Amino acid sequence: MKTILLPTDFSPSAHWASDYAIQLALFANARLVLLHIYDPLVAMGLDGDWLGRETQKQYDQAIRQLGDLRSRLVHQVKGEMVSVVARSGLRASVIEEEVVNQQADLLVMGLVGDEPRRAREEGSLATDLIPRTQVPMLLIPPGSRFKTPRNIVLALDLAQPLNLLALDTARQFARLFGATLDMICVEDEPGPDLQQAAVHVRSLLQNDPHTFQFLSGYDLPLALDAYFADHRADLIMLLPKPHSWLRTLLLESVTQETARVASIPVLAAV
Predict the structure, then answer these.
(1) CA–CA separation, 45 vs 241, rounded Å?
(2) CA dihedral for 123, 124, 127, 128, sign (positive or negative)
């Protein structure tokens, strides 16, 4: 991991993600890029000179705020490890562009913005980006502080073909932290096909510390709640599945729902 991209809106809850990201960057010896996206001004007949001045003011204010955040963070790391980018535009689109521009290996986002209750109930920009992300995405709920993950829960859907690239991403993160992968699959009565799939995935991870078990139930967030009553976890990993644009628009995926209600960080591995 060489570069971590952290979009921030400077909302009261944003510090959880920024504090987590800087500690992760320090752990991985990675560069951290702070990104702030502000709304573009709409011309609509306004004087061009005035529009230019106001646009520059927006940019200057964003850079000042990013500079203040950078100053707060860099006392923990080398200054050159943290850089800043300010841009106007549509947030989701700009984030996707900056992932490419910065050659980011990881996207880190807070799970709530300036409307925490609504984000928990309906989702947020972070959860909306899950189906679109082209790089692993780490979502940080309020209250999360960085500690080296030692126990990582990897939730799998063995009824569908396994995404081997995403599985390898999960394995690489576990190796980065020296963590055990505790794999789970929610299924009340796993038949022979699922049992065989479980044997197969365990063979793929035979050189990595891991466990595997089927959990009863049909709802992953509820099954995880029951699991966490008896098991420790520092991080949840999920392998998002591709869906049609219409399904993505109309329905919340299991990964999005799990991330939205999570109380520990969630990594969408792609």
Answers:
(1) 45
(2) positive
